[in-house]
Design goal:
It contains 15 helices and 10 strands. It has 377 residues and is an alpha/beta fold. The chain has 2 domains: 21-285, Alpha-Beta Barrel (TIM Barrel); 315-374, no CATH class. The strands form 2 sheets. An 8-stranded parallel barrel has the order 3-4-5-6-7-8-9-10, surrounded by 5 helices. A two-stranded antiparallel sheet has the order 1-2. A hairpin with a 6-residue loop joins β1 (21-23) and β2 (30-32). The longest helix is centred in the C-terminal third of the chain and has 16 residues, at 279-294. It is globular. Residues 1-5 have low confidence and may be disordered. Bound molecules: iron/sulfur cluster (2 copies). Residues 309, 311, 313, 315, 350-356, 366-367 line the site of one iron/sulfur cluster.
């Protein structure tokens, strides 16, 4: 595919009447505090096109895509909304790497994603599904880093980031290599696992894209417990966005929006919120800690040592729902989550053998919590 030499240096769009902007690490880019995760775009293409267009109108200037979202249709669903509007907008592409991924293959993947999106260049390209065990494959001679650096030299890519599901410690090690300009990690009121990594990214000037700020919709439900803990009389989704953006190391909250209503709710929330300094974030964290302590130490940490369960029960997922329910008062979200668990992994299969409890380093009374969760129906 012939790729014309990119015009890479147009400034990012901004609309200060409708949006706030924050530095994206040391890149010099000012990214919209609300960014758009394109992984939830639907089959309704008219809606997708309107959503992208309206987001840009509201000053959103970061869109995250990859070929692997939306059953392989994410970038096709994003592209029409970008037509005539992509100048000054970051559209990030993403691809994973395997043991045998070569610089040539990765370059072809970058070009393929540009082609689908109808773009001349990526202001950001991310190495996806990445972890410490893949660093050697990234760095090897003829490997992916060579493709990234070559594409940067040609202006086909401006900046690079990574994302994945490795441990916080390993993600911190990757940040400390200095190889990447940004990290993208899940982060929200009820999932603060990567908070130490985010803090370190802030110290090193690495941009932080916080995914799942409303926990995939779980934080759209009412939670008086969270309102009490945070001292805010606001809808949970609004508190959730405020929490993420109160963290000074976060560059942008990347929300996977699929309706105009979500966009029209989130953009004004972000615009209205001015965290002004770390004090608010610290007091929100203290409130969340009090909430946790109130429940004692009997909450699953998702370490997965109890697996496999001979009956196929997905224990960590159930206990995550238990935590949402008991610690955060997200009863409806927990009930919906329970209904979404496939029958092969559902707590209904538990025969009470107790093997999981023998393996659990945190002495979680798994059977008792499963039994309690079952009462949600
Ligand atoms: S071993 Fe215990 S803490 Fe770890 S996932 Fe299982 S129940 Fe949770
Ligand atoms: S008690 Fe239930 S969840 Fe635990 S290992 Fe046995 S069958 Fe699985």
């Amino acid at each position: 595919m012939p790729i014309t030499r990119p015009a890479n240096h147009e400034p990012l769009i901004r609309n200060d009447d409708a949006m706030r902007y924050r530095p994206l690490g040391k890149t010099g880019l000012l990214v919209s505090a609300l960014s758009f995760g394109c992984m939830r775009l639907s089959e309704d293409q008219d809606l997708n096109t309107s959503l992208i267009a309206r987001a840009i109108e509201l000053g959103v200037n970061y869109f995250e895509t990859t070929r692997w979202y939306c059953q392989g249709q994410c970038q096709q669903r994003t592209a029409p909304g970008l037509v005539g509007r992509s100048a000054g907008v970051i559209v990030s592409g993403k691809a994973g790497i395997q043991v045998d991924t070569t610089a040539y293959g990765f370059r072809k993947e970058i070009e393929r994603q540009l082609d689908i999106l109808g773009l001349t260049h990526f202001k950001f390209f991310q190495v996806g599904w990445f972890g410490w065990d893949r660093v050697a494959h990234l760095l090897k001679s003829g490997g992916v880093l060579e493709a990234l650096r070559q594409a940067q030299a040609e202006g086909l890519i401006h900046y690079t980031g990574f994302t994945g599901h490795d441990t916080p410690e390993n993600f911190t090690r990757i940040i400390e290599t200095g190889l990447f300009d940004s990290i993208t990690v899940p982060y929200n009121l009820i999932n603060r696992v990567y908070e130490p990594t985010i803090r370190r990214a802030g110290e090193l000037g690495v941009g932080v894209v916080a995914m799942c700020p409303v926990a995939g919709g779980a934080l759209a439900c009412d939670s008086p417990a969270l309102q009490d803990a945070l001292g805010m009389d606001l809808p949970t989704a609004e508190m959730a966005l405020r929490f993420v953006l109160a963290n000074p190391a976060v560059s942008t909250a990347c929300s996977g929006m699929s309706t105009l209503a979500q966009l029209e709710q989130n953009a004004p929330t972000v615009k209205a919120f001015d965290p002004s300094g770390p004090a608010l974030f610290e007091s929100m964290c203290e409130g969340l800690e009090r909430l946790r302590e109130g429940l004692g130490q009997r909450l699953c940490t998702a370490c997965r040592y109890c697996l496999p369960c001979a009956q196929g029960v997905d224990i960590p997922r159930h206990l995550e729902l238990y935590r949402h329910w008991r610690a955060f008062g997200l009863t409806d979200a927990a009930r919906q989550g329970l209904r979404g668990i496939p029958s092969a992994n559902h707590l209904a299969r538990c025969n009470g053998c107790g093997e999981c409890e023998k393996k659990c380093p945190n002495a979680i009374p798994v059977r008792e919590q499963l039994k309690e969760l079952a009462t949600l129906g």
